[in-house]
Amino acid sequence: MTAGITSSALPATQKLASSWIDGAPVSTSGSLHRVINPATGATVAEMALATPADVDAAVASARAALRGWASATPAERSAVLARLAELAEANAELFIAEEVSQTGKPVRLATEFDVPGSIDNIAFFAGAARRLEGKATAEYSGDHTSSIRREAVGVVATITPWNYPLQMAVWKVIPALAAGCSVVIKPAELTPLTTLTLARIAKEAGLPDGVLNVLTGAGHDVGTALAGHRDVDVVTFTGSTAVGRKVMAAAAVHGHRTQLELGGKAPFVVFDDADLDAAIQGAVAGSLINSGQDCTAATRAIVARDLYDDFVAGVGEVMSKMVVGDPEDPDTDLGPLISAAHRAKVADMVQRAPGQGGRVVTGGVAPDLPGAFYRPTLVADVDENSEIYRDEVFGPVLTVRSFTDDDDALRQANDTEYGLAASAWTRDVYRAQRASREISAGCVWINDHIPIISEMPHGGVGASGFGKDMSDYSFEEYLTIKHVMSDITGAPEKDWHRTIFAKR
Ligand code: NAD
């Protein structure tokens, strides 16, 4: 794919149906909603939002479609997903244009990461759909044949965030479909376009009507109604920790299973034997990807005292040269934040940092541009109890502290309620092994930070949630395990009956 696609490829201000229910666009009756390009403030699309009443229709559609899809053969489900991967590739330019215009992310990122990563994930699950595994069927008791059935869990309700709208939708929806589930997804209302397009092309790929439904609505009403709907079976969520806990509470009313991919505050540990240039380059890339609006972004650099001054100077210099501006220009490094309101939150946190011991080395300002832009920001010497070091900023902001020895480094890395991702930078194999063992996180990178791959799981511990997206491990969220135990003796009196009938 080339980074030549721009959102000007889209018609100005599309009038869209907010929802996709039972295989067709549905115009709902909620309040008027505008999807805004945060780089320009222009309206990209207008729609009436879905309402809680629409949740009933979408869930009913998914329930009605479930039996047929769950009983399709793995090969049939695989064929639909393989065709969807091909159609996603054929629609890559549209996906890129929609993603850039609704999020403001640089076209280079959408072209080389969001869209090809999503297509690869669909292709992976087209294959994975045909190779579910379980324990071998065998006579474990001696008197019975035991076998395992892995069955679709049912109707999946899923709620996704705005930072990687297509990828987050794909990570939730596609393994569920591969497992034989039907789905109702509520994308973030700021960024619904690519999720609606995904549902439309899934129908073209042969997905039966009702198996995938989309509701664009607000979190507090449609999201709550969906998570707490009596007739869903599992609730999967990607978003902030605070909202994830509300979703879990709503799902608990009916005892629904949940899977939560939540916030992060990833440590980036640089030991004194690290390749300093690689660590500097890696820290800038790892903290600024998607303007830092990435749950795994490097946010807490923890650096050996001997390297500290050179690391801070090096990162500050590279950050100060980053190009912030027009997302549609392939030479742009950073686009805007998702909204003016979110930029204000990031700017306020940076502004409060010096009062809590931090030193702003570079950035800390908004460039003179009309959109929600913010300069890459490095805050050194942060106090370990300061807000900017402990709380999720979700912007282009890296904090730095030093450590004294390896014990101190690993203590600081784990001094957070979050546990999504982390990295350790060292050329010492024993240090690398120790860091990967002792850092509490769903993923530990060694001498890199950010890469993900369809074959490997993504998901956190602690306040970062539980359960996995991507890889075969994600099937655990969408399948139930049933034990079938068949008597093979034919005897009316089973051997184990001696535990019940004392006199025989
Ligand atoms: P958010 O939690 O504000 O919103 C996420 C989704 O929840 C949206 O669709 C929103 O409409 C909906 N929602 C809001 N209130 C709700 C409620 N009461 N009930 C049900 N749904 C509700 O998150 P965001 O601002 O869209 O995204 C940023 C957050 O997502 C960050 O915290 C980031 O770390 C996290 N995130 C995590 C991962 C991961 O894999 N762990 C990936 C991407 C983003």
Question: How would you describe this protein?
Answer:
- The protein has helices spanning 52-70, 74-90, 92-103, 107-128, 165-179, 193-204, 219-227, 241-252, 276-288, 305-320, 340-352, 387-390, 406-413, 429-438, 475-478, and strands at 14-15, 19-21, 24-26, 32-36, 43-48, 144-152, 155-159, 182-186, 212-215, 234-238, 257-261, 266-270, 298-304, 359-362, 377-380, 397-403, 421-425, 443-446, 465-466, 479-487.
- With 504 residues, the chain is an alpha/beta fold.
- The chain has 2 domains: 7-261 and 471-483, 3-Layer(aba) Sandwich (Aldehyde Dehydrogenase, Chain A, domain 1); 266-446, Aldehyde Dehydrogenase, Chain A, domain 2.
- Strand 2 (19-21) and strand 3 form a beta hairpin.
- Nicotinamide-adenine-dinucleotide (NAD) binds at residues 159-163, 168, 186, 188-189, 219-220, 223-224, 227, 238-240, 243, 246-247, 261-264, 295, 392, 394, 420, 460, 464.
Kindly list the characteristics that best describe this protein:
single chain, 504 residues, alpha/beta, Aldehyde Dehydrogenase, Chain A, domain 1, Aldehyde Dehydrogenase, Chain A, domain 2, eight-stranded mixed beta sheet, seven-stranded mixed beta sheet, 15 helices, globular, binds nicotinamide-adenine-dinucleotide
CATH topology of the largest domain: Aldehyde Dehydrogenase, Chain A, domain 1
Q: What is the CA-CA span between the terminal residues?
A: 76 Å
Count of individual helical segments: 15
| Radius of gyration based on Cα positions | 25 Å
Q: Globular, elongated, flat, extended or rod-shaped: what is the shape? A: globular
| Relevant CATH superfamily of the largest domain | Aldehyde Dehydrogenase, Chain A, domain 1
| CATH A-level architecture of the largest domain | 3-Layer(aba) Sandwich
Work out the number of β strands.
Answer: 20
Helix content: 25-40%
Structural class: alpha/beta
Q: Provide mean pLDDT, rounded.
A: 96
